[in-house]
């Protein structure tokens, strides 16, 4: 195969390996599912709703529903919503407050004030980080999605764990570490130099200090035996990691390990799939990156679109089947539009290092093919030599057999003459 054809082949194979994201829904503008009735407060909320203020932040997936949080801004009636993964028509769905309008009352500390990080566990629970408000402390809400979205647990962080002053905290991302005997949540607080840990088994929370380091985004590796928590710093392009075993020492500190530098700053979202591939998004960028965390740090472009002009253009999550779900925000041309897209990840080439390693594998395979060709030529030449030798040998034997009857005839004549 010529180098040119080989390049085309490798490029095509790499494109085939990239995730093919299909568009499920498109919105020119969002709307909410407004309740019918005479509730004047809801009517006022609907009147004040501003679709242009909708900016999605975090996503979680379970069953046939997507759960989304959005930035708290004037004109946003609820910061935690859900929608179906797929509908019966092409009409994009409206946003439904989760679990109901009753849990989205402003300055009511028994309601969700500002939902940020979301995560679902394998038992069908939705974990929600609530930043709170000026009057309401931060909390973790845990909902049972398999029991009519019932509120299963509300944990209010004590002031020694998370400041009760709204100006001294900003709780963002959350990841879940499910072990045989407990479920632990790791939470990023951008305004504090620590990681927050919450135990569902004991209903207690504590902090692990990371001196001089503040975190924005989190991701958890799938390897339970040597599980690592990956940490992204807002305003920097650095990524770090820490062993989860160090996060169970209540009130202690952890030594974080530098991993590598991304091409862009402001890593705001990342997730790791079951094949150890991390997917990362950066503010004001129109692409996602990836990196196989089981290998030395090497950033690769994963998905890229045209100009978006959006601060937080993507949010994404994985479902239990390994499907990648992503929303895309486009603010070009003075209008803001959104898309929901999905695709199935193909991890086989990722685990071997992606297309760069594929080229190396191809070069190695070409060397092997060359060796095999020379061996084949050797065996062909050897076979031809043997065939020629056998052919000549057969011809000599045939000549010898033709001479035997003539000799026998001469002997018979001699015997006859003797007898007479």
Automatic annotation (TrEMBL):
Gene3D superfamilies: TolB, C-terminal domain (2.120.10.30). The chain crosses the membrane at residues 371-392. The keyword Nuclease does not apply. It is found in: Secreted. Keywords: Membrane, Secreted, Signal, Transmembrane, Transmembrane helix. SUPFAM superfamilies: NHL repeat. GO terms for cellular component: extracellular region. Coiled coil: none annotated. Its main location: secreted. It comes from the Eukaryota. Residues 1-18 form the signal peptide. Belongs to the major royal jelly protein family. This is Bee-milk protein. It comes from Cloeon dipterum.
